[in-house]
Design brief:
Strand 5 and strand 6 form a beta hairpin. The protein is elongated. With about 325 residues, the chain is α/β, with parallel strands linked by helices. It has two domains: about 5-130 and about 250-335, FAD/NAD(P)-binding domain; about 145-250, 3-Layer(bba) Sandwich (FAD/NAD(P)-binding domain), CATH 3.50.50.60. The longest helix is centred in the C-terminal third of the chain and has 24 residues, at about 310-335. The protein has eight helices and 17 strands. Strands 1, 2, 3, 4, 5, 6 and 17 form a seven-stranded mixed β-sheet that branches. Helix 1 (about 15-25) runs parallel beside helix 8. The chain binds flavin-adenine dinucleotide. Flavin-adenine dinucleotide binds next to helix 1, helix 2 and helix 7.
Length: about 325
Amino acid sequence: MTIYDVLIVGAGPCGLSCGIEAKRNGLQYAILDKGSITESIRRYPINMTFFSSADMIAIGEVPFVSLNLRPSRIEALKYYRKVAEHFALNIHIFTEVQDIQQEGDLFVLQTTQGEYRTKKVVLAIGYYDIPRELNIPGENLPHVTHYYDEPYRYTMTHAVVVGGANSAIEVALDLYRNGVHVTVVHQFDWFDKTAKYWIVPDIENRVKKEEVKAYFNSEVTEITEKEVFIRNIQTGKTDKIPADFVFLMVGYHPDAKFLRRVGVGLNGEMLIPEINAETFESNIPGIYMAGSVIGGEETAKVFIENGKLHAQPIMQHIRQQLSEKQEKVWVKKEA
Ligand SMILES: Cc1cc2nc3c(=O)[nH]c(=O)nc-3n(C[C@H](O)[C@H](O)[C@H](O)COP(=O)(O)OP(=O)(O)OC[C@H]3O[C@@H](n4cnc5c(N)ncnc54)[C@H](O)[C@@H]3O)c2cc1C
């Protein structure tokens, strides 16, 4: 059985960056992903556009050429696949890591494709797999989702979009522009001030012209097959809204259950992993964290632009650690 120097869990943009740096540092590595390459981006809304310019989310110093200033999801999917091909990265797709145990100096990873052994591990698992739940009756009904694809299936229906940040605004506008009767429900008094500056005026005008209905300072209390029940947080007034489809665009968070099972310390309500700010090594020596997972619940804090930069310090630290260890072995042998 191969004993790797480092196994990288997650083939998102930050995991791929780690793979490139592992290769550049001459480490024996593999990248394991439970889905395809950049699985999270593959599951993003089909017609989404990044808020970053292409150069800002390029990795491995491979230029990212896009038709527009901000690339589309499809351009990003093609680009990251070309980068993986360019570096001939060792990626094991459809390999979900279910548990990580320590055995002497090694880590043993239990995966859906069998056991892997390695000296070091990097967790670049992102946050997009676990939606933030509202924990209300009806949240798991078939017409309710935390993920959006495209508008065409929903034309001529009534849709309720819950949330007020980027994803909720983009979903509401996309549905409205494709003939859907859209109602937005948001817990705060207006749309998120940090939302993309070029979409906010658009949704504000739609609401002012009542082309999109909106309930602010409101929370969803129950979802039934045909309606959404809401309550105004300030007045206590309740309402019900007709809904054929419900989009809960209220965010995501890292897989806390998996991280805790592995033994990674998560601080406070924001689930911020315990890491060394310079080396990104976690509270478990030999396990490192990279990319957006480091932001915990504050998913807007770490994204591709800054998460990709974790790769170099991590791989340099791993190489240094492994060579120091090797030296000790030689010195001992000499003695
Ligand atoms: C709609 C939207 C627009 C965005 N726009 C931008 C933007 O313009 N600019 C920007 O910088 N960021 C943007 N972001 C944020 C950015 O996409 C994420 O921060 C980025 O994907 C983080 O990369 P990552 O490699 O850390 O995580 P991900 O890309 O989420 O990759 C994690 C990978 O880990 C895999 N994985 C998870 N658990 C396991 C496991 N147990 N075993 C094996 N594999 C596992 C997943 O399948 C996934 O492929 C956007 C996000 C969204 C949702």
